[in-house]
Amino acid sequence: KNQVEQSPQSLIILEGKNCTLQCNYTVSPFSNLRWYKQDTGRGPVSLTIMTFSENTKSNGRYTATLDADTKQSSLHITASQLSDSASYICVVSARSGGYQKVTFGTGTKLQVIP
Amino acid sequence: GAVVSQHPSRVICKSGTSVKIECRSLDFQATTMFWYRQFPKQSLMLMATSNEGSKATYEQGVEKDKFLINHASLTLSTLTVTSAHPEDSSFYICSASPGQAGIETQYFGPGTRLLVL
Protein backbone atom coordinates (compact mmCIF):
# COMPACT_ATOMS: atom_id res chain seq x y z
CA LYS A 1 0.00 0.00 0.00
CA ASN A 2 1.31 3.42 -0.93
CA GLN A 3 1.82 5.56 2.14
CA VAL A 4 3.32 8.94 2.93
CA GLU A 5 4.13 9.78 6.53
CA GLN A 6 5.16 13.19 7.73
CA SER A 7 6.74 14.30 10.95
CA PRO A 8 6.32 16.10 13.15
CA GLN A 9 2.57 16.52 13.04
CA SER A 10 2.91 20.03 14.37
CA LEU A 11 5.74 22.38 15.19
CA ILE A 12 6.08 25.77 16.85
CA ILE A 13 9.22 27.82 16.26
CA LEU A 14 10.37 31.35 16.91
CA GLU A 15 10.54 33.81 14.08
CA GLY A 16 13.96 33.79 12.47
CA LYS A 17 14.76 30.21 13.42
CA ASN A 18 15.26 27.34 10.99
CA CYS A 19 13.30 24.12 10.92
CA THR A 20 13.21 20.83 9.04
CA LEU A 21 10.15 18.80 8.16
CA GLN A 22 10.36 15.12 7.32
CA CYS A 23 8.56 12.92 4.83
CA ASN A 24 8.92 9.13 4.55
CA TYR A 25 7.17 7.25 1.81
CA THR A 26 6.55 3.74 0.58
CA VAL A 27 5.15 4.73 -2.80
CA SER A 28 6.26 2.57 -5.69
CA PRO A 29 7.19 2.89 -8.51
CA PHE A 30 8.35 6.36 -7.59
CA SER A 31 7.74 9.14 -10.06
CA ASN A 32 8.17 12.42 -8.21
CA LEU A 33 7.78 14.10 -4.86
CA ARG A 34 6.29 17.50 -4.25
CA TRP A 35 6.11 19.76 -1.23
CA TYR A 36 3.10 22.02 -0.93
CA LYS A 37 2.29 24.86 1.46
CA GLN A 38 -1.32 25.19 2.47
CA ASP A 39 -2.51 28.24 4.34
CA THR A 40 -5.56 27.74 6.53
CA GLY A 41 -8.71 27.77 4.42
CA ARG A 42 -6.78 27.93 1.14
CA GLY A 43 -5.70 25.51 -1.53
CA PRO A 44 -2.16 24.10 -1.54
CA VAL A 45 0.59 25.94 -3.37
CA SER A 46 3.53 24.06 -4.85
CA LEU A 47 6.95 24.76 -3.34
CA THR A 48 9.18 22.18 -5.02
CA ILE A 49 9.00 19.12 -7.21
CA MET A 50 11.73 16.50 -7.21
CA THR A 51 12.34 13.56 -9.48
CA PHE A 52 14.32 10.41 -8.83
CA SER A 53 17.64 11.86 -9.90
CA GLU A 54 17.42 15.06 -7.86
CA ASN A 55 18.89 15.25 -4.37
CA THR A 56 18.35 18.89 -3.49
CA LYS A 57 16.18 21.68 -4.79
CA SER A 58 15.75 25.17 -3.41
CA ASN A 59 13.01 27.74 -3.72
CA GLY A 60 13.99 30.85 -1.85
CA ARG A 61 14.16 30.01 1.85
CA TYR A 62 12.79 26.53 1.21
CA THR A 63 15.20 23.69 0.45
CA ALA A 64 13.96 20.18 -0.23
CA THR A 65 16.11 17.07 -0.20
CA LEU A 66 15.37 13.62 -1.52
CA ASP A 67 17.00 10.28 -0.77
CA ALA A 68 15.38 7.83 -3.14
CA ASP A 69 17.29 4.91 -1.61
CA THR A 70 15.88 5.40 1.88
CA LYS A 71 12.64 6.90 0.52
CA GLN A 72 12.94 10.00 2.62
CA SER A 73 12.56 13.68 1.90
CA SER A 74 12.97 16.76 4.00
CA LEU A 75 11.91 20.38 3.69
CA HIS A 76 14.20 22.87 5.36
CA ILE A 77 12.94 26.37 6.05
CA THR A 78 15.58 28.98 6.71
CA ALA A 79 15.11 32.17 8.71
CA SER A 80 11.43 31.53 9.29
CA GLN A 81 8.88 34.29 8.96
CA LEU A 82 5.43 34.67 10.46
CA SER A 83 3.98 34.11 6.99
CA ASP A 84 5.51 30.63 6.95
CA SER A 85 2.80 29.53 9.40
CA ALA A 86 0.86 26.95 7.41
CA SER A 87 0.52 23.24 6.79
CA TYR A 88 3.22 21.67 4.67
CA ILE A 89 2.15 18.65 2.67
CA CYS A 90 4.38 16.05 1.07
CA VAL A 91 2.87 14.46 -2.02
CA VAL A 92 4.40 11.45 -3.72
CA SER A 93 3.44 10.23 -7.16
CA ALA A 94 3.72 6.70 -8.48
CA ARG A 95 3.72 6.05 -12.18
CA SER A 96 1.62 3.19 -13.48
CA GLY A 97 1.60 2.89 -17.23
CA GLY A 98 0.73 6.30 -18.59
CA TYR A 99 -0.91 7.53 -15.42
CA GLN A 100 0.11 8.84 -12.06
CA LYS A 101 -1.32 7.93 -8.68
CA VAL A 102 -0.70 10.59 -6.07
CA THR A 103 -0.55 9.95 -2.36
CA PHE A 104 -0.82 12.84 0.06
CA GLY A 105 0.86 13.00 3.43
CA THR A 106 -1.15 14.19 6.40
CA GLY A 107 0.94 17.33 6.63
CA THR A 108 2.97 19.15 9.22
CA LYS A 109 1.32 22.17 10.79
CA LEU A 110 3.95 24.85 11.36
CA GLN A 111 3.37 27.85 13.55
CA VAL A 112 5.93 30.63 13.61
CA ILE A 113 5.62 32.93 16.61
CA PRO A 114 7.18 36.33 17.22
CA GLY B 1 0.58 32.01 -14.53
CA ALA B 2 -1.19 28.73 -13.77
CA VAL B 3 -4.07 30.18 -11.79
CA VAL B 4 -7.05 28.07 -10.79
CA SER B 5 -10.17 29.65 -9.38
CA GLN B 6 -13.15 28.20 -7.57
CA HIS B 7 -16.61 29.57 -7.08
CA PRO B 8 -18.15 30.01 -4.66
CA SER B 9 -15.56 30.28 -1.92
CA ARG B 10 -18.16 29.56 0.74
CA VAL B 11 -21.66 28.16 0.56
CA ILE B 12 -24.27 27.33 3.15
CA CYS B 13 -27.22 25.23 2.11
CA LYS B 14 -30.10 23.32 3.60
CA SER B 15 -30.04 19.57 3.89
CA GLY B 16 -31.53 17.93 0.80
CA THR B 17 -30.61 20.64 -1.65
CA SER B 18 -27.94 20.45 -4.35
CA VAL B 19 -24.87 22.62 -4.58
CA LYS B 20 -22.69 23.26 -7.61
CA ILE B 21 -19.03 24.24 -7.29
CA GLU B 22 -17.09 25.55 -10.28
CA CYS B 23 -13.39 25.14 -10.93
CA ARG B 24 -11.72 27.15 -13.67
CA SER B 25 -8.19 27.24 -15.03
CA LEU B 26 -7.70 30.88 -15.91
CA ASP B 27 -4.55 30.91 -18.01
CA PHE B 28 -3.99 27.39 -19.24
CA GLN B 29 -5.91 24.50 -20.68
CA ALA B 30 -6.55 21.84 -18.09
CA THR B 31 -6.57 18.45 -19.70
CA THR B 32 -7.11 16.86 -16.33
CA MET B 33 -8.90 18.17 -13.27
CA PHE B 34 -9.10 16.68 -9.84
CA TRP B 35 -11.56 17.11 -7.01
CA TYR B 36 -10.51 16.71 -3.40
CA ARG B 37 -12.26 16.87 -0.05
CA GLN B 38 -10.54 17.91 3.12
CA PHE B 39 -11.96 17.49 6.59
CA PRO B 40 -10.59 19.55 9.51
CA LYS B 41 -7.05 18.62 10.50
CA GLN B 42 -6.87 15.97 7.79
CA SER B 43 -5.07 15.82 4.49
CA LEU B 44 -6.67 16.14 1.11
CA MET B 45 -8.54 13.10 -0.09
CA LEU B 46 -8.92 12.60 -3.81
CA MET B 47 -12.55 12.15 -4.82
CA ALA B 48 -12.33 11.91 -8.58
CA THR B 49 -10.25 12.59 -11.64
CA SER B 50 -11.79 14.01 -14.78
CA ASN B 51 -10.48 14.42 -18.29
CA GLU B 52 -12.12 16.90 -20.61
CA GLY B 53 -14.93 15.35 -22.58
CA SER B 54 -14.98 12.01 -20.79
CA LYS B 55 -16.55 10.58 -17.68
CA ALA B 56 -14.86 11.15 -14.36
CA THR B 57 -13.02 8.37 -12.59
CA TYR B 58 -14.12 8.15 -8.98
CA GLU B 59 -12.04 6.92 -6.07
CA GLN B 60 -13.23 3.96 -4.11
CA GLY B 61 -15.98 4.89 -1.68
CA VAL B 62 -17.02 8.07 -3.48
CA GLU B 63 -20.60 7.92 -4.75
CA LYS B 64 -20.66 9.05 -8.35
CA ASP B 65 -24.42 9.65 -8.27
CA LYS B 66 -24.04 11.94 -5.29
CA PHE B 67 -21.01 13.86 -6.48
CA LEU B 68 -21.64 14.71 -10.11
CA ILE B 69 -18.62 15.93 -12.04
CA ASN B 70 -18.74 17.61 -15.40
CA HIS B 71 -15.57 18.55 -17.27
CA ALA B 72 -17.20 20.05 -20.33
CA SER B 73 -14.33 22.26 -21.47
CA LEU B 74 -10.59 22.56 -21.08
CA THR B 75 -11.00 25.38 -18.58
CA LEU B 76 -14.04 24.41 -16.54
CA SER B 77 -15.05 21.54 -14.31
CA THR B 78 -18.02 21.47 -11.99
CA LEU B 79 -18.79 19.38 -8.93
CA THR B 80 -22.42 19.09 -7.91
CA VAL B 81 -23.19 17.73 -4.47
CA THR B 82 -26.69 16.34 -4.82
CA SER B 83 -29.10 15.98 -1.91
CA ALA B 84 -26.53 17.37 0.45
CA HIS B 85 -26.44 16.22 4.06
CA PRO B 86 -24.62 17.67 7.07
CA GLU B 87 -21.92 15.00 6.76
CA ASP B 88 -21.07 16.45 3.33
CA SER B 89 -19.90 19.63 5.04
CA SER B 90 -16.27 19.93 4.15
CA PHE B 91 -13.61 21.89 2.29
CA TYR B 92 -13.69 21.00 -1.40
CA ILE B 93 -10.60 21.74 -3.45
CA CYS B 94 -10.05 21.29 -7.15
CA SER B 95 -6.79 21.13 -9.00
CA ALA B 96 -5.97 21.31 -12.67
CA SER B 97 -3.15 19.92 -14.71
CA PRO B 98 -2.17 20.74 -18.26
CA GLY B 99 -1.01 17.18 -18.78
CA GLN B 100 -2.67 13.83 -19.11
CA ALA B 101 -3.80 12.28 -15.83
CA GLY B 102 -1.86 14.76 -13.78
CA ILE B 103 1.60 13.87 -15.01
CA GLU B 104 2.51 17.51 -14.82
CA THR B 105 2.20 19.67 -11.75
CA GLN B 106 -1.26 20.10 -10.33
CA TYR B 107 -2.31 23.66 -9.65
CA PHE B 108 -4.80 23.95 -6.85
CA GLY B 109 -7.78 26.21 -6.50
CA PRO B 110 -8.40 28.17 -3.31
CA GLY B 111 -11.10 25.77 -2.13
CA THR B 112 -14.81 25.97 -1.39
CA ARG B 113 -16.09 25.59 2.12
CA LEU B 114 -19.47 23.86 2.17
CA LEU B 115 -21.71 23.90 5.22
CA VAL B 116 -24.89 21.86 5.09
CA LEU B 117 -27.42 22.71 7.78
Features:
heterodimer, A: 114 residues, mainly beta, 5-stranded antiparallel β-sheet, 0% helix, globular, B: 117 residues, 7-stranded mixed β-sheet
Strand content of chain A: over 45%
- Count of beta strands of chain B: 11
Helicity level of chain B: under 10%
Rg of chain B over CA atoms, rounded to whole Å, is: 13 Å
Which word captures the global form of chain B?
Answer: globular
Coarse structural class of chain A:
mainly beta
Reported for the largest beta sheet of chain B, the result is: 7 strands, mixed
Overall pLDDT metric of chain A: 91
Q: Largest interface, and how many residues on either side?
A: A-B, 19 and 22 residues
Structure description:
The complex is a heterodimer of chains A (114) and B (117). By secondary structure, chain A is mainly beta. Chain A has strands spanning 4-7, 10-14, 19-25, 30-38, 45-51, 56-59, 62-67, 72-77, 86-96, 99-104, 108-113. In chain A, strands 2, 4, 5, 9, 10 and 11 form a 6-stranded mixed β-sheet that branches. In chain A, strands 1-3-8-7-6 form a 5-stranded antiparallel β-sheet, with no helix packed on it. Chain A is globular, with a radius of gyration of 14 Å. The N and C termini of chain A lie far apart (41 Å). The model of chain A has no long low-confidence stretch (mean pLDDT 91). Chain B is mostly beta strands and 117 residues long. Chain B is built from no helices and 11 strands. Chain B has strands at residues 4-7, 10-13, 19-25, 32-38, 45-51, 57-58, 67-73, 76-81, 90-97, 107-108, 112-116. In chain B, strands 2, 4, 5, 6, 9, 10 and 11 form a 7-stranded mixed β-sheet that branches. A 4-stranded antiparallel β-sheet of chain B has the order 1-3-8-7, with no helix packed on it. The radius of gyration of chain B is 13 Å and the shape is globular. Classes of the chains: A mainly beta (114), B mainly beta (117). The interface between A and B is medium-sized, with 19 and 22 residues.
